[in-house]
Amino acid sequence: MTDKKLESFKIADTRKPSVSNPKKGPEKQVDNEDQIQSVGFARIEKILENNDAEALSEKLSELINSLEQFGGQATTNKGRAAAKKAIIAVERTADLLDYLFQTKAHMQTGG
User: Fold this and answer.
1) Which one is predicted more confidently, 108 or 19?
2) Which of 66, 69, 70, 63 is closest to 92 using CA atoms?
3) Which residue has the higher pLDDT, 54 or 24?
4) Spatial distance between the Cα atoms of 97 and 20, rounded to a whole number of angstroms
5) Which long-range contacts (CB under 8 A, 24 or more apart) does 93-99 make?
6) Whole-number Å distance between alpha carbons of 62 and 57
7) Tell me, what DSSP letter sits at residue 110?
8) pLDDT of residue 21
9) % helix / strand / coil in the chain, to the nearest 5?
10) What percent of the chain has pLDDT over 70?
11) Confidence band of 20 (pLDDT split at 50, 70, 90)
12) How far is Cα 49 from Cα 53, in angstroms, rounded to an integer?
């Protein structure tokens, strides 16, 4: 390589940005007042504000039942293991949301 080519050579020109080295961009402005007040879990906050605990519990139990059926119909160990992991994840999510609904009710009663 000639000296002029070496002067303009940058490693960043040959590598794409990754998770450990993200590409720097302009800062995003938060326009919505709701996003400013959020603690970073907007989807969970929306679920807690807009849904009823019993209705959500019913939806999650339906999801668990369908996952159990999928696991029973799975022909490979990989499918059964995936269904089992999904069931565990949904159960943990249900427990967390139940706890958050209890906390919300406790906060609203002033306890």
Assistant:
1) 108
2) 63
3) 54
4) 32
5) 93/60, 94/57, 94/60, 94/61, 94/64, 97/44, 97/47, 97/48, 97/53, 97/56, 97/57, 97/60, 98/53, 98/57
6) 9
7) T
8) 58
9) 70, 0, 30
10) 64
11) low
12) 10
Distances (CA, A) of 11 to 4, 7, 22: 16, 12, 14
How many domains is the chain partitioned into structurally?
Answer: 1
Q: For residue 61, is it within any domain?
A: yes
> Amino acid identity of 26?
P
Considering only residues 36 and 108, tell me which one the structure prediction assigns the higher pLDDT: 108
Q: Which domain holds residue 109?
A: 53-111
Distance CA 30, CA 72 (A): 47
Q: Is residue 45 part of a domain?
A: no
Convert the pLDDT of each residue in 60-86 to its tens digit. Answer: 999 999 999 999 999 999 999 999 999
Token pair of 51 as six digits: 């849904």
Judge whether 94 lies within some domain. Answer: yes
